[in-house]
Amino acid sequence: QVQLVESGGGLVQAGGSLRLSCTASGLTFKQYTIAWFRQAPGKEREFVASHVHKDGSSYYADSVKGRFTISRDIAKNTVHLQMNNLNVEDAAVYYCHALSDYDNYWGQGTQVTVSS
User: Are 34 and 59 in contact (CB under 8 A)?
Assistant: First the structure.
């Protein structure tokens, strides 16, 4: 059974930092591109960042470039999202997504709240 478990969300003041983690089980981690998406109330789910398994490249939404960093710890089957200089527009539920050539999976999400 495949599971993606997000952690690290919480309440932070604007300008602060959080580090999200996505730990995978039940799949061959190194065969999956792992991405973070987020969804704010009343808005569609949007792409935030991804780490591609094939070449180790990373991609970011324009809105988070320079502030967020995605990284992969293969030994721990975990992908981290370091989020710095958070602002109120970053508040959302953050979801982890695993994508391979054959299937894909979503985590349950972790809430990030940013106070002004």
Answer: no
